[in-house]
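Regression test case RT-17, inverse folding.

Input:
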């Protein structure tokens, strides 16, 4: 299977190039036979990449350490599911996994459009196979071949990075890759529309669900990564503005802007150039995220790079794609003129436009802060660190504006909102939000940004709640249904709208969790067995943690481990126990920290084993090596990130789910291409 996988990787490249060339030629010359051949190449490449992936996984599962990739990312004691995750654990395998997912989505796009939207498909397939071929070229000719052999086979491998040996890392990277790769489909349709000059809203209607799918996976991938950081990195936070964290956030920001601005184009015929630019930018940012993670140009716990050779290949590809998109948009500019203009700043289109500008403002700030150290190092030879203070200072005010627009945009009227519309939709939410802020202030809350965030969150939630109540009541009155049935039918009849409201609820909860971090508490103390740490929560609870001592059990895939046990009392009553660890893996020099977490609805109790006075002695169970330093945190509302993520997921699934009787884009056959292609299939 391993040799078959290696052979399949080499065969996939010429077939991918074949599909790309004949896709474009078939579209240009309206040759259905060439188009059909191009589409079949998509299925062939996917099948070959499945064989390649199976070969890599087989090498991991059978401990074939003569392969460089397996020797550096696995060992004999590694858990089986981490060996399977080896497919995306390093630079080489992750690139294979990337193009595997792209080829899968390409198959879905080709198959689902085999009898409709035929005029778009030649160029769509051409774009998809071009991107796939690029990744295959990188794999085969940039010294990142996953089947590279060592001159000898070591007895055991180095093993997986200890910080990646967490179950969230089996979920987080694949989810992000699903988001990155699936956005290639809308990009391909947009390029096809530009090449054909068919620049109405049809390409948007065709790809809307693809856009939602990509956004859904990007959002969940980011949240899964936050959970991994919270559990594994041992500092009590969930976001550090790490360069790779930033790279995953960028396409999500622009995709969010795109999802909102296409509504303006669909309803008002505006922002056509803007939307084309956004879809191209989002695709380029998915490639940028892949490049940054695997280029070796930055140092990060998230990076999978072994060499920097591919950095210049990726930069060249992004330059060619970006330049090509600019030329196409400039060429079709006359066909991309807006049909209407914004009539008032008090309108839905204006609110969505401001939302776009703020999202791009955040994206620019994040991109600049990420690249600035690289730029300065390249020019001056000295890197200037850009840390969380910069990102927080710039993005927090913009985030507040985005939070407000999240409530305003969906309910304000199109063209020009009347005074009646403004009073009806916003008077109650403003009053409720003001009352909450006043109440928090009277209770002693003085953090300005937290107060603003809580007030705006309540403002948005009130708007959404009122919309659901009004819609349910109206449906109940008209149809004579009970409120529960009316609510379910309301959501079912317009899943896109109401699913979007539910997504907004999830995002508001996440914003609220961010604000809650302003009230976190921490205590650092060195203890001997029997001694205690006491910490008070902002909600009035008192936690007392009693140190019971260190033990050193032998764990699988670990050389040594020191486990500290703490018993917990909450307000004087027993509340379970927590453990925190120092682990030293077989083939890694530095010990890693494993934290203890006790979660509640409003706060988490978070335990970190900072230091052990005699770590070597603790690993050997020496009786006197028990003195240790602990950091105890009370993290406020952090669980609301995960609750918000769950609600966001539910809302996204509702919005993506096809409605019964939903109108679809009618198939229209392009002269020559669609007809001849279908004729070839029929024959």
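Golden output:
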């Amino acid at each position: 299977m391993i040799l078959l996988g290696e052979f399949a990787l080499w065969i996939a490249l010429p077939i991918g190039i074949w599909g790309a060339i004949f896709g474009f030629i078939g579209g240009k010359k309206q040759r259905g036979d060439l188009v059909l051949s191009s589409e079949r190449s998509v299925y062939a490449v996917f099948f070959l990449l499945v064989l390649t992936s199976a070969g890599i996984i087989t090498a991991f599962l059978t401990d074939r350490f003569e392969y460089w990739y397996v020797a550096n990312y696995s060992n004999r004691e590694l858990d089986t599911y981490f060996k399977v995750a080896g497919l995306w654990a390093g630079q080489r395998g992750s690139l294979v996994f990337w193009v595997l997912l792209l080829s899968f989505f390409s198959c879905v796009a080709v198959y689902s459009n085999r009898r409709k939207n035929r005029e778009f498909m030649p160029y769509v397939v051409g774009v998809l196979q071009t991107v796939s071929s690029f990744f295959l070229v990188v794999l085969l000719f940039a010294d990142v071949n996953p089947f590279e052999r060592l001159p000898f086979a070591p007895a055991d491998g180095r093993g997986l990075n200890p910080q990646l040996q967490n179950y969230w890392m089996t979920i987080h990277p694949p989810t992000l890759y699903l988001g990155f790769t699936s956005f290639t489909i809308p990009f391909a349709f947009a390029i096809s529309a530009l090449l054909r000059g068919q620049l109405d809203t049809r390409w948007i209607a065709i790809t809307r669900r693809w856009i939602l799918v990509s956004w859904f996976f990007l959002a969940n991938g980011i949240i899964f990564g936050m959970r991994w950081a919270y559990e594994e990195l041992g500092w009590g936070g969930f976001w550090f503005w790490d360069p790779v964290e930033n790279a995953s956030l960028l396409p999500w920001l622009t995709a969010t802007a795109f999802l909102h601005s296409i509504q303006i184009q669909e309803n008002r015929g505006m922002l056509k150039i803007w939307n084309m630019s956004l879809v191209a930018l989002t695709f380029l940012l998915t490639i940028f995220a892949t490049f940054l993670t695997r280029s070796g140009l930055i140092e990060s716990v998230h990076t999978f790079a072994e060499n920097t050779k591919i950095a210049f290949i990726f930069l060249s590809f992004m330059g060619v794609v970006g330049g090509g998109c600019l030329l196409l948009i400039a060429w079709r500019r006359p066909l991309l003129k807006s049909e209407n203009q914004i009539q008032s700043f008090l309108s839905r289109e204006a609110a969505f436009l401001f939302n776009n500008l703020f999202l791009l403002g955040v994206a620019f700030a994040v991109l600049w802060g990420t690249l600035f150290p690289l730029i300065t190092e390249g020019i001056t030879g000295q890197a200037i660190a850009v840390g969380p203070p910069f990102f927080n200072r710039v993005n927090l005010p913009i985030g507040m504006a985005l939070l407000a627009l999240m409530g305003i945009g969906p309910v304000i009227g199109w063209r020009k909102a009347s005074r009646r519309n403004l009073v009806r939709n916003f008077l109650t939410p403003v009053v409720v939000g003001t009352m909450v802020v006043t109440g928090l202030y009277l209770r002693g809350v003085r953090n300005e940004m937290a107060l603003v965030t809580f007030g705006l969150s309540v403002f948005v939630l009130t708007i959404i709640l009122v919309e659901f109540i009004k819609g349910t009541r109206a449906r109940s009155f008209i149809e004579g249904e009970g409120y529960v049935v009316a609510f379910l039918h309301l959501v079912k009849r317009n899943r896109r709208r109401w699913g979007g409201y539910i997504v907004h609820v999830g995002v508001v909860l996440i914003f609220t969790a961010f604000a809650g971090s302003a009230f976190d508490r921490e205590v650092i103390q060195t203890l001997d067995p029997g001694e205690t740490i006491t910490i008070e929560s902002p909600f009035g609870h008192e936690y007392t943690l009693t140190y019971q001592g260190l033990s050193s059990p032998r764990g699988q895939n670990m050389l040594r481990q020191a486990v500290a046990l703490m018993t917990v009392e909450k307000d004087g009553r027993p509340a379970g126990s927590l453990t925190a660890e120092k682990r030293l893996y077989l083939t890694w020099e530095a010990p890693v920290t494993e934290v203890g977490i006790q979660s509640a609805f409003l706060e988490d109790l978070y335990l970190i084993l900072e230091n052990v006075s005699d770590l070597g002695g603790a690993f050997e169970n020496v009786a006197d090596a028990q003195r240790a330093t602990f950091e105890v945190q009370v993290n406020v509302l952090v669980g609301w990130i995960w609750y918000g993520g769950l609600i966001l997921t539910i809302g996204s699934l509702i919005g993506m789910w096809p409605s019964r009787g939903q109108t679809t884009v009618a198939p229209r056959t392009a002269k020559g291409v669609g007809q001849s292609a279908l004729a070839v299939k029929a024959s």
